[in-house]
Each structure stands twice: as C-alpha cells, then as structure tokens.
Amino acid sequence: MALLKGTEFYISKRVGRAIMDYKMIREGDKIAVAVSGGKDSMTLLRVLLDRKRFVPVKYEVIAIHIDLGYPRSVAVKLRKYFDKIKVKHYIEKVDVLKKTQKEDINCFWCAWNRRKALFEASNRLKCDKIALGHHKDDIAETVLLNLFFQGEISAMSPKQKLFKGKITIIRPLAYVEERMIEAFARKDSMSHVTCNCPNSVISNRSRMGRIIKELERFCPEIKTNICRSVTRIKREYLL
C-alpha cells in the first residue's frame, strides 16, 4: 500500500470522502481528467493517480488537455509531463481562434469551447466520467455568483449526469480548499501554469473570491457555510 505524506495526504483524504459521499467512482470506470496545466487540474490528476495504488475500486485515468490555439500553449510541456508520469493522455487541438473576432473572446466563450471539445474527446475515448478540478472555493463562489447575478439558489454539483446519463461530471476536489492545493503545488515544486487572461482578475468570479476572503477574517468557516447552505434549505421560509 502506497503511503501519501504531508499535504497530499490531507487532500487525498478529502477527495476520498467526496468520492464516497457522492459515489463518484465505480469499479471499471474510465475517467477523463481535464488538465489545463493549472495547479488545480494538475493536483487532481496527481491525487487520482496516486489513489489508484491503494484504493479497492479499480478505475482507469486518461488525461485530456484542450488546446484552443492560444499563443502561450502548454500542450508540448504537458505532453512531456504526461509521458514522465506514465499516464495515458490525449491532446485535443481546436482551432477556434481563427474563426473568432478578438472582441468576441470572453470567459463564457472560452469555457464553452473548452467544455464542448472536452465532451467530444471524452466520448471518442469512451470515457464514462469526466473529472474537473473545481474545488471548495469554486463551489462557494458559484453559489454567490448565481445568487447575486442570476437571482437563483444553485451551486456547482460535485456529481452531475449529462446527456441522459451518457457522461457524468465529477469534482473530487469539492471538499478541498484552494489554499491547500497551493501549498501542495509549492511543496511539491509542481510545474504548473497560471491563467494569463486579462479578464481573470476583473471577472465576477474573482470579485466573489475577494468578497469571501474579506468575510473570512470574521467568519473562518464561511466557505463551508456557503456550500452547506444549499443542502440545508428551509423551504417554509422561502417565498
């Protein structure tokens, strides 16, 4: 049995709890791990691979990277990394930038095209699960985003079936806070990339993150409380 140490041990423990709580992984699953090259997806890939060595449930992992053709592509760097850690992988090259005006490129456009290419690649590779690197901070921010900007109470589900159950999205890092991932990436000297998009610091998601961080000074459990709130709805007090 492989022994995990330090921060990875605590991350893996929380990942294991999320997998059990939401029944994310079953025997024989073929899981496509969406790897952007950032710390979140790189950590997710590492933990899922390491857990394969000691968990009783057997599953297969394939790393998938979607290359939209941005000038600072990390596809070559990631391919070398995938080869180094001996994980099956697939690089999906999508030349959508050539067909799109610069002013039309925004967060929604980027996310939509990445997700579309990811679904198509996963389907071709016959993967029944797609693992995304969203963590606890992302879920808390999503609750506030939907409340403030959509006027609805909803979250980012740790497990979500799509296309009539043909593909299931799982988020094994749902119980893991971003600062824990940052600590692991630093300690492990993980070679990851940061988002260079100029919209990343002015997006509404970034604003929600700053609000949560400010309130966390007065309420350390704020992220846990926000995430828990959508599971503890008191319907008698709703309009």
Strand order of the largest sheet: 3-2-1-4-6-5
Order of SSEs: HEHEHEHEHEEHHH
- Helical/strand content category: alpha/beta
In percent terms, what proportion of residues is strand? Answer: 5-15%
Principal-axis shape equals: globular
Largest sheet: 6 strands, mixed
CATH domain fold name: Rossmann fold
Report low-confidence residues grouped into runs of 5 or more. none
What average pLDDT do the residues reach? 89
Query: Using DSSP, what is the number of strands?
Result: 6
Number of structural units classed as domains: 1
Counted by DSSP, the helix tally is 8
Tell me the name of the CATH homologous superfamily: HUPs
CATH architecture annotation? 3-Layer(aba) Sandwich
At the first level of CATH, the class is Alpha Beta
* Rg (CA only): 18 Å
N-C termini distance: 53 Å
Quick take:
With 239 residues, the chain is an alpha/beta fold. 44% of the residues lie in helices and 13% in strands.
Can you walk through the features of this model?
α5 packs across α7 and α5 crosses α8. The chain contains eight helices and six strands; from the N terminus they run αβαβαβαβαββααα. By secondary structure, it is an alpha/beta fold. The mean pLDDT is 89.
Secondary structure topology:
Layout: H1 6-22, E1 30-34, H2 39-51, E2 60-67, H3 75-85, E3 88-93, H4 107-124, E4 129-131, H5 136-150, E5 159-162, E6 167-170, H6 178-187, H7 204-216, H8 222-229
Parallel strand pairs: 1-2, 1-4, 2-3, 4-6
Antiparallel strand pairs: 5-6
Helix pairs in contact: 1-6, 5-7, 5-8
